[in-house]
Design a protein that fits this description.
The complex is a heterodimer. Chain A is of the alpha/beta class. Chain A has eight helices and ten strands. Classes of the chains: A alpha/beta, B alpha+beta. At the A-B interface, helix 1, helix 2 and helix 3 of A face helix 1, helix 8 and helix 11 of B.
Chain lengths: 246, 397
Amino acid sequence: MRSSLHARQLSTTLRSPERGFRLEVPDFAMEAGETVGLTGPSGTGKTLFLELLGLLRRPDPGSAYVAERPEGRLDLAALWGKGRDHGAATSTRGGLFGFVPQSGGLLPFVTVAENVTLGQRITGRADPAHAEALMERLGILPLAGLYPAALSIGQRQRVAIARALAHRPPFLIADEPTASLDPATAAEAMALLVSAAREDGAALLVSSHDVGLLERYPMRRCHLALVPGAPDLTVSRLAMDAEAVA
Amino acid sequence: MRLVLALALRDLLRERVQLICNVSVIAGVLVPLMVLFGVKNGVYDALIGRLLSDPSNLQIDTSGNLAYSEADAAEVAGWAESGFVTLKTRSLFDFVNVKPVSGGALRDAVIAPSGAGDPFLPAGATLGPGEVAVSGQLARQIGVSEGDEILIATQAERPRQLVFRLRVSAVIPSERLAGRSVLAGIDKLDLIEAFYDGFALPDHGIEDGRPLASRIATYEGIRAFARNLESLAALQDRIETRFGVSTEARTRQVEATLGLGRNLDLALVLTATVACIGLAAALLFGFWGAIQRKARVMATLALMGIGGPRLAVFPIAQALVSAAVALVVSFGLFLAATLAVNALFGGGVGGDGMVRMSPVQVLAIIVAVLVFVLATSLAAARQAQRVDPATVLREGT
């Protein structure tokens, strides 16, 4: 059985005295091995959607969000505790997801190799051979002993990709991973990200403003767009590619 | 937990400037306070040591004509403030002649009541029935030492002297017992008084006089020693109140020294309090600011699955390691300062030097500093726990 994520009537609401914002996900699914591209204008909550799926935002009550894994079904919406308590969301997030932030998000005080294996150490899934293979595949093995400050932005993104995959998470979330790269480096990084996730069998959800870049790769697409809401509430809704095109 | 500790140490080593700043701030406050504390210890201990080296500073003698009984002495001895307590015979009969049994010089000396617990005697020493202790000066002048036998005789004859043949169980150093003195059990002084009062003492060859059985033993005074210097004034007050007499003691001198110690303590506490408030503010905002600067690192760790209390370990571990390094540096500097101060001024306060600190005090300082630094790092720990991991996704470099 392949791992997959399923969300139905999933939403999260940001409260604000002036104007609130609600993100609505009527129906979303993602299966290990596939790539899903997320697009949408600025202000429609692309990062918020990634945060919601990545257990970084508490879903609204009534949301349905589960992960199907070989070892069984996990109700992700029920992980959160009360108030500021993240409950089991934090530890579950570490094992279930790998993240590729826009800027790499590397720890500056450990080496490239240590950054790559960090997820393995946190989740207790030590696998030095896999980490080395990833670094080899992403062309950063010669940089293993360097600190992030000595790397170019493109190299840092490769390290971030290796780190996100090293502990073999079933799902990979990449938020504008090429936004801070020049077009040539961006294309190279995106190609590496897509191929590395596919070779590792992980599902990849990648957001980008660069629709042209996403179109170079076979992937399902989803789109966020604002829809009419209450006067004091901005609502953004996710639509899958067919709906988005319509 | 081990991973977070290891990461915290790696970050601390990389942020050497931050570590040096924190160590400097802690050592900058700690070293002067420790030197002040050490000097206070040295000076005060020397003054107290001088007082304690002379047991007379613990001694209280009643004055006046009141008669005391053995029950009175027992009552005083039972008080919490009391150390050794003995009755006194009339001071008129305190003078005796002393010479070695083996022959030699004869000297007059003062005989004083003594016994187990007498602070003039060596610690733990007792006086057996046939034993006395003598002052160093008397021992030198008549040429006796511990174990020798001496003859102690009254200065009056009736028609012959009352003579005791006794063994010297201890020679008291001159700095503890000045002059020519003999310390003997109260029974010896009681017999001397009975001798002067005209009672027959056939056991000692004094056949003439009233029968000793008709004598009612009363005593001219009580000599009490306070349990410690702090108890002297209270014991003196209690004796005077209980018996309605005046007493003689070196209370003013002792209280002046103790008051000096209390004032030095107060000054040190005030100085330390002000310094610690400043240090607490510097460390609290320093640790908090460091975590603010490292919010992205904290968020990355939280994003990858380290959350809650485990993240709080990061700033706490860094703070405690900083404190440990600061303690090592501080004690190193303190040692250097101690050697310098003791070399310059140590001669004036006795052999142990002017700056002193006991192992217990060193341990207390270490624990206090670690607890203090731990407390100041709690705000940073709380801040670390509150970091939103989503900031890694939302913020670019």
